[in-house]
Amino acid sequence: MYRKRVFFKFGLAMALLVMSLGLQAQSKPPLPQDKVLKLFSKTTDQANSNRLVAELDLETLKKLPQQTFTTHTPWFKEPVTFTGPLVRDVLSSAQLKGQQLVAVALDEYKAKIPASDATNFDVILAHSINGQQMSAKNKGPLFIVYPYDSKKELQTVLYYQRSVWQLKALIVE
User: Fold this and answer.
1) 127-160 in b/e burial notation, b at 16+ Cβ within 10 A?
2) Are 103 and 37 a contacting pair, CB within 8 Å?
3) Which stretches within 28-152 are classed as H helix?
4) Of 42, 60, 120, 159, which has fewest CB within 10 angstroms of its CB?
5) C-alpha distances in angstroms, 63 versus 8, 58, 108?
6) Cα–Cα distance between 113 and 139 in angstroms, integer?
7) Beta-carbon contacts of residue 93 (< 8 Å; ≥ 6 apart)
8) Which pairing describes strands 76-85 and 143-145: parallel, antiparallel, or unpaired?
9) Residue 131 — left, alpha, or beta (φ > 0 → left; ψ -120 to 50 → alpha)?
10) Separation CA 92–CA 53 (nearest Å)
């Protein structure tokens, strides 16, 4: 009997919490944990100093024009369909320009990417794989993906190394 009361009280408390969060979500911006990407601009006044320009949530990224393509990758046996905004659109929306991007993953892996890749190729920040939203367990929440099958030159280790999964930040230099 005691267990039933505890579970009932816990269930009631959770229901009230969910309802209050739903009401708060309508009037407040997304919580910090909802942010999936931080955009930084390299500052010139100090070496190794970056200025936070924007923190984007998944909803904001999904409001940008979306690209979908299917491509072979070295990480999956079969061709995979990725969806997400173009990197150049994400940078443009934050009014960021530079010569180089430094992509930073959740595990602190970093890759330097020439900014020209964003204009020369339709590189996306994939948030979905085969129609399913990506999570950290399957290379998400964001994954820099090149359309590897579109050009032979993209099917090399150089571009695979630039394809950062579990992306958390982009530093524009």
Assistant:
1) bbbeeeebeeeebbbbbbbbbbeeeeebbeeebe
2) no
3) 58-63, 87-93, 116-120
4) 120
5) 40, 9, 27
6) 19
7) 64
8) unpaired
9) left
10) 12
Let me know whether 25 and 44 are in one domain.
no
Whole-number Å distance between alpha carbons of 116 and 10? 54
pTM for this entry: 0.77
Judgement on whether residues 26 and 36 belong to the same structural domain of the protein: no
Are 92 and 26 members of one domain? Answer: no
**Cα torsion 166, 170, 171, 173: sign:** positive
Q: How far apart are CA 55 and CA 102, in angstroms?
A: 16
DSSP 145: E
- Between strands 128-129 and 100-105, the pairing is unpaired
Partners of 80 in the beta sheet?
71
Structural domain containing residue 15: 1-30
Do the beta carbons of residue 148 and residue 71 sit within 8 Å?
A: yes
Neighbours of 73 (CB within 10 A): 19
Instruction: Mark whether 79 and 17 lie in a shared domain.
Output: no
Is the domain of 39 the same as that of 94?
Answer: yes
